[in-house]
Amino acid sequence: MALAQDKQTTTPDIFRQFSEHVVKIEVVETGSAAKATIGTGFYADAAARIVTNYHVVSKLIHSPERYRIEITNTGGQTSQATVLGVDVVYDLAVLHAPRAHKGFLQLAPIQIQQGTRLYSLGHPRDLGLTIVEGTYNGLLQHTLYPKILFSGSINPGMSGGPTVTQAGSVVGINVSTQGEQISFLVPVERAIALLERTAKVDSRTAASFLPEVGRQIHAYQSSYLAKTFVGAMPTLALGPYELPTKPAPFFRCWADAVRRKDLPYAVVNHDCSTDDYIFVSAEQSSGIVRFNHQLLSTGELNPMRFFSLYGGQLQAGKIGMIGNEEEVTSFRCETRNVALSGGKVRSALCARQYIKLPGLFDAMLRVAPVGSRNAGLISTLSLSGVSYDNVEALARRYLEAIKWRR
User: Fold this and answer.
1) What is the pLDDT of residues 266-304, one digit of tens each?
2) What are the distances in angstroms from CA 149 to CA 42, 178, 181, 251?
3) Share of the chain above pLDDT 90, in %
4) Is residue 36 part of a domain?
5) Residues 33 and 113 in one domain
6) Alpha-carbon gap, residue 123 to 189, rounded angstroms
7) One domain, residues 180 and 223
């Protein structure tokens, strides 16, 4: 009988029953009263606490003197909300609304099968509250933190909204999309944990959260950086070099080559990167570890011409990290020769500091072996939002992983 009832439940039924617990969230620039960010949230308990994404309210966290949060319910009533807690690693925030609300969505972990029909609610591009059908496809296997693969069209503005079963149980919180119905949810267990941590919090000033964001990022680094470039790892043979590749399960790697008859040299590129990141602000991320090996080789150019080509490629390399002067300092670089077990390399380590999050840095290490007559390697390691101790540790382990083939 229950199964028959489930089959009769329609998408309009689900929207009618649960949409009233979903709110639009706007982060407003106080000087102009203009909307800076739009997202979605939902009531999660009888205390009128609202779950959303950290990235939806991040502008307020970074500049509390400039922004305020407004929520609008399905009846069109608007009120201001305050932040009670954040989890920057899992991209979640808990807000409190002073206006009383009747009812809330149920947050409880449940076991569901791959292919189960789910329904996502949110405000895509401020076009009004919508409902999107999709399917549950389990947890992603190799990520920095667990995320659910939702085969449905989550769009900007739906971030922070709930994805529910036919019965209205929240399975996950909308967080991001790659388009083509590839979307991601934060598992509901993480929202429950944040609600529990903020259960006794009545109010907090927005200015108090930025130090906590920094502490959370620092604390989380050990869970993934400590495993990177450590112990036995896969290696890649490029020309005369043996190089690291896919140093941990949460990395993805790609390769390609340029071999043209009109060029007197060949170029092979090998790229690896963590397939996830922690959102810090619109121009800052943490958790991105990326490295690239570029091999230039020739059988036609004499050593002088090849050295000129190799040097030009080295000079052409740029630090491809965005950031403005309010958030990060300028890069400072140190260049030196390093003797490794198989030969000597020229290395340049560049780093810049986060201004509002002391102790966090972006960094880039570029390595180029010297002395080869017809093959040259340019290997680059980039790190985002890590402590300087970790910059030094990973740079050292990366250098040690570069070897010459025997």
Assistant:
1) 999 999 999 888 999 988 889 899 999 999 998 888 888
2) 20, 11, 10, 18
3) 69
4) yes
5) yes
6) 23
7) no
Q: Which residue has the tokens 């979605």?
A: 40
For 363-367, the CB contacts below 8 A with 24+ separation are: 363/391, 363/395, 364/319, 364/321, 364/331, 365/395, 365/398, 365/399, 366/314, 366/317, 367/398, 367/399, 367/402
Q: Distance between CA 17 and CA 22 in Å, rounded?
A: 11
Query: Could you tell me if 228 and 350 lie in one domain?
Result: yes
**Mean local confidence (pLDDT), 175-186:** 94
Q: Looking at the structure, do residues 225 and 374 belong to the same domain, yes or no?
A: yes
Q: Which residue has the tokens 């108090």?
A: 208
- Helix 209-225 to helix 388-401 angle, to the nearest 10 degrees? 20
For residue 209, what are its two tokens?
A: 């959260």
The sign one gets for the Cα dihedral 216, 69, 100, 12 is: negative
Name the pTM for this structure: 0.91
pLDDT tens digits for range 11-52 = 999 999 999 999 999 999 999 999 999 999 999 999 899 999
Residue 3 vs residues 8, 109, 261, 403: alpha-carbon distances, Å? 9, 20, 66, 62
